[in-house]
Amino acid sequence: MNSFSYLTDQQLRYVWLILLWTQCETAPVSDILVVSVQPPDLVRPGLSATLPCWLNPPQNAEDLEVRWYRDNYDTPVLLYKAKAFDDTQQDASYAGRVLFGLKDATSGGLKTGDVSLKLVNTTIQDAGQYTCYVTSLQGYDSSPVTLVVTETGRSSVLSAVRTEDNMVNVSCESEGWYPQPVLRWSDQHKELNHKSLLFNKDSSGLVSVHSWLLVPSSSKVSCSVVLPNKDTREATLLLDFPPQPAGTAGWVAFAIVLVAALALAALVMYYKKKVKTFKPSRDERDAAGEPLLPKALANNNYVNVKLEDTDTPFLKIRNNKLRDTTYENVPEGPRVTCLTAVKGSPGFTSGQHYWEVSLRVRNDIHAKQSWWLGVTAAREIPNDYNFTPNTSNGFWFLSSSPDRADSFQVSTEPKVFFAFTERPSKVGVYLDYDKGEISFYNVEEESLIGSLAATFTGEVFPLFNPGRDDISSMEILHREEQNQSSNDAGSPEKTSDGTGQNQSSNNAEPPEKTSDGTGQNQCSENVGCGGETAEAFWTAIASYLPAIKTRRVLPSEEHDNMYQQLRYVWLILLWTQCETAPVSDILVVSVQPPELVRPGLSATLPCWLNPPQNAEDLEVRWYRDNYDTPVLLYKAKAFDDTQQDASYAGRVSFGLKDATSGGLKTGDVSLKLVNTTIQDAGQYTCYVTSLQGYDSSPVTLEVTETGRSSVLSAVRTEDNMVNVSCESEGWYPQPVLRWSNQYEELNPKSLLFNKDSSGLVSVHSWLLVPSSSKVSCSVVLPNKDTKEATLLLDFPPQPVGTAGWVAFAIVLVAALALAALGVMYYKKKVEKSKQSRDERDGKIVYI
Length: 847
Description:
Elements: H1 9-26, H2 29-32, E1 35-37, E2 49-51, E3 53-55, E4 65-69, E5 78-81, E6 84-85, E7 98-100, E8 117-119, E9 128-135, E10 140-147, E11 157-162, E12 167-177, E13 182-186, E14 191-192, E15 196-201, E16 207-216, E17 218-226, E18 232-240, H3 249-274, H4 282-288, H5 295-300, E19 306-307, E20 315-318, E21 321-324, E22 342-345, E23 352-358, E24 372-376, E25 395-400, E26 407-410, E27 416-419, E28 426-432, E29 437-442, E30 447-453, E31 461-465, E32 474-477, H6 535-542, H7 545-549, H8 556-579, H9 583-586, E33 589-591, E34 603-605, E35 607-609, E36 619-623, E37 632-635, E38 638-639, E39 652-654, E40 671-673, E41 682-689, E42 694-701, E43 711-716, E44 721-731, E45 736-740, E46 745-746, E47 750-755, E48 761-770, E49 772-780, E50 786-794, H10 803-846
């Protein structure tokens, strides 16, 4: 019998209310079970996302029920209960894609109350709100968390179509965005109102956007497509198409010719204004930390160029010096020509090569005012005064400018100028044949004058020209060959001071690892292993100090005996030190490449001891090119900045190679560098020393900066072509610029790179395309960061040079036709008048 059968409905109602009140009183959810969440990071489609959720304070959640759901509680994204996953009612779109994740690297998972949701292979449809719901026998709690999925679309495609009323219809289109982006039009002064703005979604949920507006035929207009998280694609178009009045063909032809000439002049002025050179002051270079061309690269690729034998009467060549002559048959005028040019040898078909030329051979004479330096593909220098050498006929060189006293110029068409403040006394020429680039450096100032990109085919030769009417000579500088032989069996060489003592350079490098990679210290008579036992060597020579101080000449036998004794002592010390320091068995340094870093951010260069050991009592040295001016030096349990490279002062410390690292106590000696600059890029050495030995390993820091969106310009030429230029700035390292249409890559007419004072690179290029074309300009970094701009042109060709004649011919034909009609009319009238007179005369006769 039911124990509640004797109760009335009213009594049952009161019992139910009491039970509910009791349950609420005995399960104060907020006091027993509190769920905490935090917003997850933005995620792109195809990647994994973790939605953090945990119990606060921490408690074991293995015996609890955890439910993640979206709109419908009964069809969960993930359900965990009775210590197992339950997928019987799971939302089918999440099958196989969800599991528990960790809210951070230190989380202990379910045992510490971390019930975060990990979602793999994220899609656009996964974006939105999720609820983290946790239930125990005592109560429950829940909190919502929102997942933001974002996708940055493709580069915008700009189209330009001329209308009948002398306006240009410019459209902007981009696809592959999520969520829906914002599109803005602007010119140099303000935002512009569009005529149309359309959005569309594809089957995957990605959004495309299309907009257009009308602008004058000479305009600069930009289209920006922006996401809420500030990811942006921007394209800029510079139009220069003058309005064309309809119905006046002759004037149209005249206007086209005039505007094309003006546009060409504007283009030349544009190049002159835009192409600048970087020449920092010495203070700026010292702050930057290193020259633009590493000395090691220049030294390793130095070539002693020899001048080609030539019997030209216009040059005087002696040894490595040359200048022009006062030959009486030299053509009049100041223009420098190929008559005074000469090739050098050897020629080059690949690789990197560097040579230097002095433009001031005497201090009492100013630096040369007139000269050429570069390379040429010509087998023979044309002996023609009227020949104009340039990049199109195989001459790539830098020269003094006859047009501007404060500028150099390169052999491009149109001319490109590089301004300077002081004429260089010594110029370095660096040829990178494989990369297609020749650079010119002011050697004494350690600065880049400018670079010229080219496509080399076949052999190229050094090119020199001492110019015209310049009292200063030009000298090709040679360096002595460096012999790297070691004196394995001989005695130590005496130094220039005659003491025989080994004089170490400030730039002396520590012993390198052997080729087998073991790190074992390899010793010879001329390489020291270091260590305290070396004191014995100096003790051994102490007995000879009185003779040295008094400059007393030792007898020959005693001198030889001293030399032999010192030699044996030195060999024994070296052998002892090498035997007692098997570095690879005691101290092994491991490194890994750091992540790419952008200027202004922090970078960590991972380095640690393997197997782990406490490094607090060791000496740790991080350095770059110079061992004796370290980036960071730690010894005797403290940092030592007495010899630190000044450019790193206040910016370096020990870092952690990962989140689980224990720092120095576990052998982690990673270098942390804050406020990174372009000049910080390059190789570093992590060098660790103990009483038993040492080891080192190199690690390379890559600094990268993606430049600004490319600016496209379109200028019409006289021959129905369009000069399209592409310019972008703010890149590091030097990017690659590519032109293409729908079918293939295109070859540019010009490609120029320039560096600003901070080391960032700008690039400028142009080519000629038909007036109805689709052309794309892509600027790409080695890490694949890309800025691309696409331009669609649709301007029907205008006949230039014939329209005026056509109009003239039409007018002439019309005039001739009218004249013929007039003559016929007059002749007919005359005949009719004569006939009337004859008839009148006849009537008089017969009457």
